Every structure is written in C-alpha cells, then in structure tokens.
Amino acid sequence: MDRTLAEHKTNHLNVSDTEATDPAIRRTTRKELERRWNLVRAHGSLAPVPITQPIPEERIVAIVDDDASVRQSARRLMRSLGYRADAFGSAEEFLTSGRLADTACLILDVRMPGATGLQLQEQLIASGSTISIIFITAHGDEDARSRALELGAIDFL
C-alpha cells in the first residue's frame, strides 16, 4: 500500500485494513448509525435524549444524490434498518415529488447538476421547513462543510 494512503487511513480514518473487514466492527458501525438515526428521527438532533415518541410510519427518509449507486445503497440501508425511504436524482426531482411534507430526514449530496445540496438546504430553510439534513459527499470541501453545519445540518460526511 502506498505510504500516503496508509498515513491517511491511520491519521484520518483511524481504521486498519483488519478493522475495515472485521464483521464485529461493521456491526458496531451499523449499531452506531442506527443509534444516531433514532436520535435524529425522534428529536431532530444527535443529542442523547431518550426516544419516547416514534415518528409516524408515513414519514420517510429522502435520499437526494445524482449518483444512482449511492441512491440505491442508501435507500437499501435505510430500509434494512426498518425505515421508509425514497430516493431522488436531483433537488428538483425531490421538490416536485410531493414527498416534502412526508420527509423526516434528508440525506443530501453536496455536488449535483442543477441545484446543489447547499442550495436545496437554503431553499428549504427559506420555506420554513424543519427537515433534518445529513450531507454526504465524495468531495471534502471545508467551506461547504462549514456552511452546511452553520445552516443547521445534522452532520456532513
């Protein structure tokens, strides 16, 4: 393995090759994801507040990403955790879908053709929406991260 990649994994991901393939660690990661999602679902944040009122079943997790494989994977993951999920290929598709009122949480890509994830976030805020947003991106941009979190995103992955 290239030394730069090894340093990156050690310094930034803190995951060794063994850990990445260890089923026990993958289960822990899934459990942590499930714990975080339950907090977001119940309270709109990751604050450790006991879940007393589940969100009604008609509420969904909406995934908005221009990459079809990411949309499918995220949708399958949410469904495997027991949540209703719909996927959309663009901000425009999501906004015109009629699912805005049903959305409890939005998993949103930063860079997309047309409206970007940040533009969608700003539009939702301007309309008074209180949807919890988790950003995902393959392009780590500190300015975008800062802006998204400043506007109230739950997380920026």
Helix content: 40-55%
CATH class identity of the largest domain = Alpha Beta
SSE string, helices as H and strands as E: HHHEHEHEHEHE
Shape label:
globular
CATH architecture of the largest domain: 3-Layer(aba) Sandwich
Instruction: Let me know the largest β-sheet.
Output: 5 strands, parallel
Within CATH, the superfamily of the largest domain carries the name: Response regulator
Number of DSSP strand runs? 5
Q: Structural class given helices, strands, pairing?
A: alpha/beta
Q: What ranges have pLDDT less than 50 throughout 5 or more consecutive residues? A: 1-20, 46-53
The overall pLDDT, averaged over residues, is: 76
Instruction: Estimate nothing, just give the exact number of structural domains.
Output: 2
Number of helices: 7
Give the strand line-up of the largest sheet: 2-1-3-4-5
Fold and architecture overview:
With 157 residues, the protein is an alpha/beta fold. The protein folds into two domains: 1-54, no CATH class; 56-157, Response regulator (Rossmann fold, 3-Layer(aba) Sandwich). The chain is 47% helix and 15% strand. The chain contains seven helices and five strands, in the order H-H-H-E-H-E-H-E-H-E-H-E. It has helices at 3-13, 17-21, 23-43, 68-80, 91-95, 117-126, 142-150; strands at 60-64, 85-88, 103-109, 132-136, 155-156. The protein has a five-stranded parallel sheet with strand order 2-1-3-4-5, with helices on both faces. The longest helix is centred in the first third of the chain and has 21 residues, at 23-43.
